[in-house]
Specification:
By secondary structure, this protein is α+β, with helices and mostly antiparallel strands. Helix content is 28%, strand content 25%.
Length: 485
């Protein structure tokens, strides 16, 4: 039986990743490399569409980039000077080939490939309306709603029809589209999902993170702004701002905590430095006497470094991760299933035995991973185990393109801190506060009336209406929507 690895099941999965390039003879190959750098954002499927000036070419498959784009015969098919790629992690809905992006359609004006990171919160309503008007959908992703809105639009040119479509959708999106003559990118007016602009040898690039530019030697130019539409064609890069400027953009704060790669620069912030600052603030808020600070690898490492420096406590790799284990593995019998916890992580006994240990992790979702890690550390001889978490308690589901469990499966939604501590088996447990998180990001204390990030998974403050659920406004308790990407 194929089983999801227990450590991966207890994380918020990484939405999706986009990489688009226009104006380079090796566009297909470079897009493959860009997707490798964005693999952390989605491991279920990968796809690339290229255009050679006359024809579109595509390859889309379930699985990771290296599994599907390592064969030269595949890369050789992706000819042309423009290409668009996507890595996907889905929440609900089928993981099947027809849902793998980029989606492609032949429209009246030519071909269109679309890649999307985010979630449309009125996608179901729009789909029903379009189906009632005769549209036939080929996938179950809400990304296809955008394709149909463009196809049925009545505005004069493609960009006008795209803008008209974006005025009709609600939700969070970073969107990149490839046509016969342009690469087009767009961000939702709140700027929830990331998208950056890069350059390489005169070619322009749109990508989810700057690390995808680094891998091909490209230069980071800037962020695509909230509500901005950029059109890249033979004449260069043009910017449109059809939406009123948002006085309070709401970028996803969890990008800083976990989603983005540590070497990325997102919204002008180096992720590694941000995570160290979060760890330092965590130490100031909830420090205690201890012998060693140990990260839960790999995502807890930068915050643990910041915690250790601020607290003046030695940093040790008390848990070693096996990097050669994929997201899934075969468990042939129930009798060895409990050994799965050690397939990916193992305790470094010499760093733990007899010690008062502070474990630092980026987040707690269901608590299953934390429980197994704590048991492992205690079995290695730790005298005390204290857990410090570099995010506030996750008490709400995300509806903007991130996989979170139903609220009743979130440990922090159903238990207080002390009960959580008993559940996972630690002597003490503490999370960074919402104010502390904002202060670590240089924003001062969180302004409840005008928060500067999307922090709905911690606070229940949803910045974009959840139309499909109730026609607007966000209740305190919500169930999970399907993710588009």
């Amino acid at each position: 039986m194929l089983m999801t690895h227990p450590f991966e099941d207890d994380k918020l999965h990484e939405e999706c990743g986009i990489f688009g390039l226009f104006g380079h003879p090796d566009a297909g190959t470079l897009t493959t490399l860009g997707l490798h750098a964005l693999q952390h954002r989605g491991q279920e499927a990968a796809g690339i569409v290229s255009f050679d000036g006359a024809h579109f070419h595509s390859h889309r498959s379930l699985g990771q980039v290296g599994d599907n784009f390592s064969d030269a015969s595949v890369i050789d098919l992706l000819t042309g000077s423009a290409a668009l790629g996507h890595v996907r992690y889905s929440t609900t809905g089928d993981t099947i080939l027809r849902n793998v992006q980029p989606l492609f359609a032949d429209l009246a004006g030519g071909g269109l490939a679309v890649a999307h990171n985010g979630n449309l919160t009125n996608g179901t309503q729009l789909r029903k309306r379009l189906e009632g008007q005769g549209s036939i959908f080929q996938s179950t992703t809400d990304t296809e709603v955008i394709v149909h809105l463009i196809a049925t639009g009545t505005k004069g040119n493609f960009v006008d029809r795209l803008v008209d479509a974006l005025f009709q959708v609600h939700g969070a999106y970073a969107l990149v589209l490839l046509t016969n003559d342009a690469l087009v990118g767009a961000r939702d007016p709140m700027g929830v999902r990331p998208l950056v602009l890069g350059q390489l040898d005169g070619a322009h690039i749109l990508a989810s993170e700057s690390c995808a530019l680094d891998i091909i030697g490209a230069r980071l130019v800037r962020n695509i702004e909230p509500g901005e539409v950029v059109v890249i064609d033979d004449a260069g890069c043009h910017s449109l701002k059809p939406f009123p400027s948002s006085s309070a953009p709401r970028f996803c704060v969890f990008e800083y905590i976990y989603f983005s790669r540590p070497d990325s620069i997102v919204e002008g912030v180096n992720i590694y430095d941000a995570r160290k600052r979060i760890g330092a603030e965590l130490a100031r808020e909830s420090g205690l006497p201890a012998d060693v600070v140990v990260p839960v690898p790999d995502s807890g490492v930068p915050a643990a470094i910041g915690y250790a420096v601020e607290a003046g406590i030695p940093f040790e790799l008390g848990i070693i991760r096996n990097h050669y284990v994929g997201r899934t593995f075969i468990e042939p019998t129930d009798s060895i299933r409990h050994l799965g916890v050690k397939l990916k992580h193992n305790a470094n006994r010499t760093s733990l035995a007899g010690k008062r240990v502070v474990l630092v992790d980026d987040s707690i979702v269901r608590g299953t991973t934390s429980t197994k890690i704590v048991t492992m550390v205690r079995e290695a001889g730790a005298r005390e185990v204290h857990m410090r978490v570099a995010s506030p308690p996750i008490t709400q589901s995300c509806f903007y393109g991130v996989d979170t469990p139903h609220r009743d499966q979130l440990l922090a939604a159903t238990r207080g801190i002390e009960e959580m501590a008993r559940h996972i088996g630690v002597d003490t447990l503490a999370f960074i506060s919402n104010d502390g998180l904002y202060q670590a990001m240089g924003k001062g204390a969180r302004n409840a009336a005008r928060p500067q990030y999307c922090d709905a998974c911690f606070t229940g403050n949803y910045p974009i209406e959840l139309t499909d659920l109730h026609g607007g406004g966000a209740p305190a308790q919500l169930s999970l929507l399907a993710e588009s990407a």
